């Protein structure tokens, strides 16, 4: 399979289901609070076929095979449509329900999104992200059960040291970091995470230099200069020995929770790390759907080469978490932006005019589409390469 076809196929099997899960969260929440869902679409319009109808909702298959959407009464894809348009939708819905009654099917009383209470609407809007988080946890649990990599041993090698950094006085390039306090260091990520959580505190490093062990007391910086880490060193993991282990269901739950918690902190904290300059340009690089497809293709190829499901399951969990957190950002046209308008409504005691809110969301959507276009061009010109996949 060519790289392009593998990337396209991988994109569909990774991002497509995650978007569908997101929309399923919205759908379940709508049903729980009584909001009428006119359509649950698999893929994006134009519509190919109506699969079936249940509870007043048409389940459709659409021609663009990416993700899906939920369209509640009184709203288009990103904004409320106003009272007049809602009344027209309600009338068409009630007429269709009357037709169903003549053939013996139960009718459903319509309830628009704006007729729901503010808290019900917030629940509806946040449910997609919640489903993504649940999906990520399930994926990590399955990954631990089918086989997850465990580093038995490894060496973290200091490659370079920044002048005037905490490490400059005590470490040298080529030193092998063996322990940080009582923690045996088996990976570069382990060292970086430990140092970050102990910024401003004294850390005792045990290292090996020219066959001899040494000890260094060091205080990681809380606010390192841009482009540097807390210690001011560049580290590389070398000579890793990795094995695959299968966890029981109980063990997998615990492992999945630890991984899920760490990923949530890592993804949610990425903007802060970018501002602090502690993430490399490659790590901080925003990506488009094309970039996700490129990464998906490499991860799927890794799973094929190793005959292990963990790479693709773990990657899908990361993307699911990122998708959930991104949608909760207070940006117009996203779920977080819509939640922000509901919060403003609670403070004002009445909603903003639908036309005004709709215009804000429309402008936000145009900006997001423009940004997506720029990122797509960048990902095409500078393809993403995931090196060091384990």
Give the key terms.
390 residues; 11 helices; 51% helix; alpha+beta
Describe the protein's architecture and organization:
The model has no long low-confidence stretch (mean pLDDT 85). The chain has eleven helices and eight strands. It is elongated and about 90 Å long. The strands form two sheets. Strands 3, 4, 5, 6, 7 and 8 form a six-stranded antiparallel β-sheet that branches. Helix 3 (118-146) crosses helix 5 and helix 8 packs antiparallel against helix 9 (310-327). The protein is α+β, with helices and mostly antiparallel strands. Helix content is 51%, strand content 21%. The two termini are 22 Å apart.
In short:
The protein is of the alpha+beta class and about 400 residues long. Helix content is about 50%, strand content about 20%.
Rg, rounded, reads 25 Å
Structural class: alpha+beta
**Strand content bin:** 15-25%
Largest sheet: 6 strands, antiparallel
Low-pLDDT residue spans = none
* Total beta strand runs: 8
Number of helices, counting only DSSP H or I runs of 4 residues or more:
11
Principal-axis shape: elongated
Distance between the termini: 22 Å
Helix coverage percent: 40-55%
The string of secondary-structure elements, in order, is HEEHHEEEHEEEHHHHHHH
The whole-number mean of residue pLDDT values reads 85
Helix and strand arrangement:
Elements: H1 3-33, E1 37-54, E2 57-72, H2 83-102, H3 118-146, E3 148-161, E4 176-180, E5 183-184, H4 188-197, E6 203-209, E7 212-218, E8 233-245, H5 249-268, H6 270-276, H7 281-284, H8 289-306, H9 310-327, H10 335-348, H11 354-381
Antiparallel strand pairs: 1-2, 3-4, 3-8, 4-5, 4-6, 6-7
